[in-house]
Write a structure and sequence with these properties.
The complex is a heterodimer of chains A (114) and B (116).
Chain A: E1 3-6, E2 10-14, E3 19-21, E4 23-26, E5 31-38, E6 44-50, E7 56-58, E8 64-68, E9 73-78, E10 87-95, E11 103-104, E12 108-113
Parallel strand pairs in A: 2-12
Antiparallel strand pairs in A: 1-4, 3-9, 5-6, 5-10, 7-8, 8-9, 10-11, 10-12
Chain B: E1 4-7, E2 10-13, E3 19-25, E4 31-38, E5 42-51, E6 54-57, E7 65-66, E8 76-78, E9 87-94, E10 106-107, E11 111-115
Parallel strand pairs in B: 2-11
Antiparallel strand pairs in B: 1-3, 3-8, 4-5, 4-9, 5-6, 7-8, 9-10, 9-11
The chains are: A mainly beta (114), B mainly beta (116).
Chain lengths: 114, 116
């Protein structure tokens, strides 16, 4: 079975500072990886996903993530955050073959302070 | 406008009283799924459906039923709700499974259920 661990439940940063949200996964088979964002009182939106190819994936709103197979990680980064990035962020994994299930991490609440 | 619509948005009910949360999408999507979101646990998939009449269990299916008689609708049924099903529920849809192509999953705005 697949599992996802988001290492930080809360991350406070100042506006215009860089941020990294950490995600590690566990799987015995190859997987696809995703980051979603949830703004207050809304559903989730896909930020980016890694399916294959380049390990550096660029997404919407200036976010990017790097797939590291040896470290089983898929950390999300942004070089300069804005107040509007305040949200909860979820990392998710899906096996590349077989059951079409998404397994989510526990979420990281990103708070941007002025 | 592309939408996933859930109803109701909020519901307080009592143990054992059957309830249905509806989910409808207007994008002709084949893949639909239900999740529950609980503090500290993130989102967990309850059921998903690859197409009409094709459904499968996610990670936490116990106590829930679904049906997919039409492509646009994917209701979540709690036959005998219990307090441990108090949660925030999300329905989502996409053209295909999340891993396929570059199409995103569209999420509804959520349904907050409280089972007393």
């Amino acid at each position: 079975a697949q599992s996802v661990t988001q290492l930080d439940s809360q991350v406070p940063v100042f506006e215009e500072a860089p941020v990294e949200l950490r995600c590690n996964y566990s799987s015995s088979v190859s997987v696809y990886l995703f980051w979603y964002v949830q703004y207050p009182n809304q559903g989730l939106q896909l930020l980016l996903k890694y399916l294959s190819g380049s390990t550096l994936v660029k997404g919407i709103n200036g976010f990017e993530a790097e797939f590291n197979k040896s470290q089983t990680s898929f950390h999300l980064r942004k070089p300069s955050v804005h107040i509007s990035d305040t949200a909860e962020y979820f990392c998710a994994v899906m096996r590349s073959q077989g059951a079409q299930k998404l397994v989510f991490g526990q979420g990281t609440r990103l708070t941007i302070n002025p | 406008e592309a939408q996933v619509t859930q109803n109701p948005r909020y519901l307080i009910t009592v143990t054992g009283k059957k309830l249905t949360v509806t989910c409808s999408q207007n994008m002709n999507h084949e893949y639909m799924s239900w999740y529950r979101q609980d503090p500290g646990l993130g989102l967990r998939q309850i059921y998903y459906s690859m197409n009409v009449e094709v459904t499968d269990k996610g990670d936490v299916p116990e106590g829930y039923k679904v049906s997919r008689k039409e492509k646009r609708n994917f209701p979540l049924i709690l036959e005998s709700p219990s307090p441990n099903q108090t949660s925030l529920y999300f329905c989502a849809s996409s053209l295909g499974p999340p891993r396929v192509g570059n199409q995103p999953q569209h999420f509804g705005d959520g349904t907050r259920l409280s089972i007393l």
